[in-house]
Fold these 2 entries.
Entry 1:
Amino acid sequence: MAKIDTAFFDLSKLEEMANNDTVIHRIDPRIKVLVASMFVICVVSFHKYTISAILPFGLFLIIVMGLAEIPAFFLLKKIVLVSPFAIMVGIFNPLFDQQPIMVLGAITITGGWVSFVSILLRFGLCVGAVLVLIASTGFNTICLAMVKLGMPKIFAVQLLMLYRYIFVLIEEGLRMYQAMTLRTFHGRAIAMKTYMHLAGQLLLRTLDRAQRIHLAMLCRGFDGNIRIRQSLRMARLDIFFLAACFAILLLMRCYNIPAMFGRLITGIT
Amino acid sequence: MSHHIVEVQNLSYTYADGTKAVDGISFLIHHGESVAVVGANGAGKSTLLLHLNGYLTPQKGKVRIGDFPLTKKTIKDIRKTVGMVFQNSDDQLFMPTVYDDVAFGPLNLGLPAEEVEQRVLEALSRTNSEHLKDRPPYKLSGGEKRAVAIATVLAMSPDILVMDEPTSNLDPRARRSLIDLLSGFHHTKIIATHDLDMVLDLCERTIVILDGKIMADGPTLEIFQNTDLLVTCHLEKPLRMQPCPVLKPKVLK
């Protein structure tokens, strides 16, 4: 349990990173939001068996990550932490899709396995892109940027509250889990009924706490408007960054660059 | 001057589950006064405090802060006037860094950037926590958290400070420095607490409540000498006013 504890607690490390000052951090948040969305759209829109053409997107992400000085291992851990969702989505593909795509000696690779890997790859890239966006921008600023880009304010406030609520929920949940394990012996399974009580308790407790935090926000004049310290300013460099990123992303989307390289080197067409 | 007066008139509040938390409380607090609200657990202290910054609106009776009666329309002004320090600092600190947290209030007041920065630095220096400004609040020690929580309130420059158990969960030294800090403030202070020794240091006036009703309201020393009253209200004399248990074990009863 301690492991999950620290892994989640690390989430706020993302916010700490957002206070760094690198090339990527200085780019206007609106630009970053647009580029990240473009990235996700490109990655998601590939055909279900595609693997090689997606790989350059990984390179793109790694370069941005390097420029923003975000530790790769940290990010990887976060992606692995949420990967069960993607695995659940793709796990049945190898069973249902038995159509052979490739034969490597004695091993036949079916379409199911290829699409499963493709799903995991896309998932990793998309989650990675969003994490890099948060780590280089900060959640508040992202919400503000999205409002500036035309998202209704009420959604932004919802998102912000949700983001705060996650931390509260995890904290309360862990405390209750600790209290429960301390009074559970011999590794006995815990009755379903106990879990139901626990879940209900958790909801009530976190609601209470969230209410107190909301009160604290109200006490300091929160009125539904998001305000941040720095003002948003679009410089010429930002526009250039946007154009360059869009060009690169579209290029990678339209051409299978690894395959082109392969042809170039091996000379096989 | 009629400024910075807290006036509560016949205030009652019953929670949805039927608990009568506050039952006909009235008092008047003048500018610059420092008042302790003491009472047993569940006596209604916290509920009373929640009325003072407009989180709860009175079901019966009246609350008046400065020049404004407490109504839906005046809540914003009242929240600017009354700074509230919560019992649990974790509830009060929710931004990624201490600086952002202290800046949250001034930014919401719509102040220009330079003014915000000035206010934040000033509030942090008044609570001796400038060195914490880039740290995430959840990693601070209890004492540091409390200091920062007070800074977040000071940055709004309120006239009245309302505090719920400010010395709870603090080690003796952090408690002492908090008391020193608070004694340096010239705000009107309303402090709900069980720490009667702190009350001796900070408040010249004490209000004792039990089951939502005021049992006594008067000079602190006078009230703390009334042993019967304290016992009825689940309280004890401050340690400083008790005879030394080592030297006179028999006197203690």
Entry 2:
Amino acid sequence: MSRIGKIWNALANPKRIPRLYSLILGIILLAGFMIPLALNDNQLYPRPTPQLQISEQDPLAPYDRGGIPLIEPGIVKAQYPQFSEKIGFVTGYLSPIAWSVSNTTLYYGTSIYSSPGGLIDEILYYTRGFDTVLESSILMMAFVIASWVALNFTMRREE
Amino acid sequence: MDITILGQQLLGYIPLGDIVLYMAPLNLFMFVSALVFTTLIAISRTETQVEAEFGTLKDRGVKVDIKEFKIRRFLAIVCGLATAGAMITGDLFDFTLFVCLIGIVNIGIVSAVKQIDVLNAAFQYGLVAMIATLPLFGGAALILASTGTISLLEIANIPTTAMMAFGSILLLLGVAGETGVAPFYATKAEMFRTPGSPFLLIIHLSSLLVIVRLIEILLIINKPF
């Protein structure tokens, strides 16, 4: 019995907790190497064969999902298509600058131009848009706490 | 969608694209109780502690000043809303994001105090919460890889594999670190030794409700019965 009491006392020290936690996490992660990998082949977001779009000299390769903006939907799959009826309608949109760049080079799809106003990620902003809201609110709370501590404990410390 | 989850008939759902918030009786009850508690602390004032000293008659009152009170109330309300969201979300990744938000706001609620040992404990809790994001999101990613979906309504119909069980162990470890349950309770227990009672209680309540919800999610993933 006294041995259990000693363990409890050792656990009551906050300094030991991160070490104990990391130790347990390390053991579980090492044990995880024994688990057989069982990847699901029927993934939600299918991709074309690797290098297929590049061999076809497509400037948007490897991110070409097809579709004409607001007229014909591109290939974007959703878990519940009944909840995102307009999916794929803007995935083919290119801003004027992006369009002119894609006409001059074959490597547009892997360049920095393809991000904002280029190939719009509908998974991020439409089907899973709520995640984006949550992620940025986590970041905002971290900034609120850090700036409060910096303002009141670091810059205005009277006592 | 006419589905039962763990023997509960769904009362309704809120579709946000692929993220479906579902309302079963248990989830709805926990959601409402989190919201009621959040409202209660939003309209209440903090307590004042009295520190007594042995051998003397010098008792000191430990008060919370108005600036500290405001930031704590704000963070406590955010924590309550995040807890309420974690109760009805039907999406595994969304759940981990809510738990992550609860963890970071918990540090914030005690970061405004001026007692050094409480701040030290909060620092250690912050370290654990940061490490815990690895198993938390890693577990959700393993479950996504082995099932192809992170919607709990879909996972409920997929037979369990060894990789899903391992993913849920990682998820359990991640939530245990973020909420500070045994054997990692020491950091959180020390954080409570400060005035400002109703705001500190949301730390407790959020851990409790998240653990209950996690058990439901683990039952959905692993289907032991």
